[in-house]
Amino acid sequence: MSESKQPIAAVGTACFRGDEVLLIRRGAPPFENQWSLPGGRLEWGERARAAALRELREETGCSAEIVGLVDVVDALMTTRAGGEPWGHYLLVDYAARWIAGEPQAGDDAREARFFAPAEIEALGLWSETARVIAAARELLCGGASSERN
Question: Could you tell me which of 12, 62, 131, 138 has the fewest CB atoms within 10 Å of its CB?
């Protein structure tokens, strides 16, 4: 019988302080040393919104208010040769407004800091991360505040 594999549910938060977005540099595999949204796995019995705020606080020391759901992203990790997937994450990404705290790397983050829009392109972000940041920025600027999750 083959091993049964399941996607891993995780959350991410595009947290904005004005025009700047808060990112972390990963301190552990996968994607060690790459910049990404603060986030991580949901814990048993935890709601996605609560997990997003918890992960933000654990990885950056900052607190925020969730403004809305940006997207749900399938992150299917495969080898460079396009072979068999080695990881599958279902990422629930939220837009949030920063409330308090100065970024300090915590948990499995190596660095945490706010980036101006002009700095984002040079970071070499995963295309989905860049897309989620742009969509979150649009959600925040549009003033939408409906949340169902």
Answer: 138
Return the number of other C-beta atoms located less than 10 Å from residue 90's C-beta: 16
Is residue 42 classed exposed, middle or buried when 0-12, 13-18 and 19+ CB atoms within 10 A define those classes?
buried
23 or 107, which is more confident? 23
Judge contact between 70 and 87, C-beta under 8 A: no
Residue-wise DSSP of the chain: -PPP--PEEEEEEEEEETTEEEEEEE-SSSSTT-EE-SEEEPPTT--HHHHHHHHHHHHHS-EEEEEEEEEEEEEEEE-TTS-SEEEEEEEEEEEEEEEE------TTEEEEEEE-HHHHGGG---HHHHHHHHHHHHHHHHT------
Mean pLDDT over all residues of the chain? 89
Q: List the structure tokens of 134.
A: 């742009």
Instruction: Tell me the per-residue pLDDT of 76-101, one tens digit each, with 9 for 90 and over.
Output: 777 766 677 778 889 999 999 999 99
pTM assigned to the model: 0.87
* Distance linking the first and last C-alpha atoms of the chain: 37
